[in-house]
Amino acid sequence: MSGKIKVSDYLIKRLQKLGITDIFGLPGDYNFNILDSVVNNPDTNWINCTNELNAAYAADGYARIKGYGAVITTFGVGELSAINGIAGAYSENVPVMKITGVPKTASIKENALIHHNFSDPDYYAFERIYSNVTTAAAFLTGENAKSEIDRVFEAFVKYKKPVYVAIPVDICGYLIDDDIPDIEIKSDPDNLKTAADMIIELLNNSKNPLIITDYLMKRFRLQKELNDFVNKFNIRITSMIMGKGLIDEDNKNYIGINHGAIGDEEFKIIYEGSDLVMCMGTLFSDLNTLGFIVKPDNRFKINIQTNYTTVEGTVYKDVWINDLMMLILNSDKISPKTVPYEVFKGYKTLETSNKPIVTDDIFPLVQDFLEENDTIVTETGIISFAASKMKLKTSSNYISQTMWGSIGWATPASFGAAMADRSKRIILLTGEGSHQLTVQELANMAKYDIKPVVIVLNNCGYTIERLLSNNSDDPFNDITKWNYAKVPEVFFDDFEYFKISTSNELKEALSKISTSKNRKFAYIEIITGKMDIPKTLIKSKDYIKLNAEK
What we know:
alpha/beta, six-stranded parallel beta sheet
């Protein structure tokens, strides 16, 4: 027989059972009881962020590394400040639980006019809003608390998307059963077997199959299985931008990021020479395909998604991605391929100089700076396209927000990622426009003794927007000028700052950082021209702009 437990204690206990040991957010008078449950649980830590949006971004970055994340705010003002971060997580299948402390049940029943609500009170308005950016939402009462928490957790684990829980102040202390139900996620056995058999047959009949993998394989924690599959059957593999980091980039089967028709010649030869394409968790969105340059054609016969698979036009429902992956991985019916291999090299070695640095000079040098066990976080904008071509070292993480593309995401997301795995060095690549939105979360990096390498591309405004605007000199793409040399002083007592204007200077700065025995917080400001664009983006800009204008 199970014992009894307080509602808020049960909620936090269940988060901890999923591996969430750090919970982000801000305090407010309606969530104190929930925060008590966080700090009183010996296995969870409460992390005050500088604002609710940053807290949601940090929880997103944390979940991308650890599997799940959570953020707690107060009612109304707090939860609306966080909603953009949760919407981004929903867009990119990042499982973040949004928990809100709301006024007590008596106030709700009386429709009392109290703070953080409208002057015409509506206590359920924000739950309705959040229901549009979460896969499950619940407003707890004394009668439904246990069943609703269990329902929300099942959706959280099953779909790997954000969920929302609102808890009135008084409901936190209600006693409920302390039994945690099993969550069973089972595929339809007939559809699973049929889909697997069809895939095996197509792979065996193919001479040069190619896997295109992507972000859903990350969300379902299938990195190891994917690498094992590629190694076991010798199948070449590429990744979309959102899926970068899934494959060990020293793997002989890896051919680089999928840039389709504008890829390097070596990539195009393999890509265009394949006779079967197998998509694994792939998203064909505009920026993930560089403006729909990558388009499915008649070779694209296998498409594995979260809970369905399409094989040669037939959709097999209730086939979960992890079940199917394990079934085909363990098959003894697939014949390994024998194909020539070209080891992926990433950027070529850059010959540095004292000429003004351009964006394309930055990433070959950063690539040389990378080490095993790094976590690289890239901001949206021109950086994300150029950085995706770098070759990562073994056991590295690479995260970016390509689909939602909310500027400012990367700085607090890198803090969350660092808290998720303190063993990895954090490298943040951001533009100065994005950095200005959320720079204050560097304060928490200092507080928790995180010493990232922050590389800020200062190109005098929103260069990606200048590229897409009708007039690149439109004043709305200018931003306020900062003295970035002073930024580290605000947050860190001990740091290294470098202002870079040539590739020689960048190479020297990175060398000093990488050879430092007592690593400090490193802040690198790189000055480029306001219309300096990486070659990859120059090739794809017309595709992106055309589709943005449709």
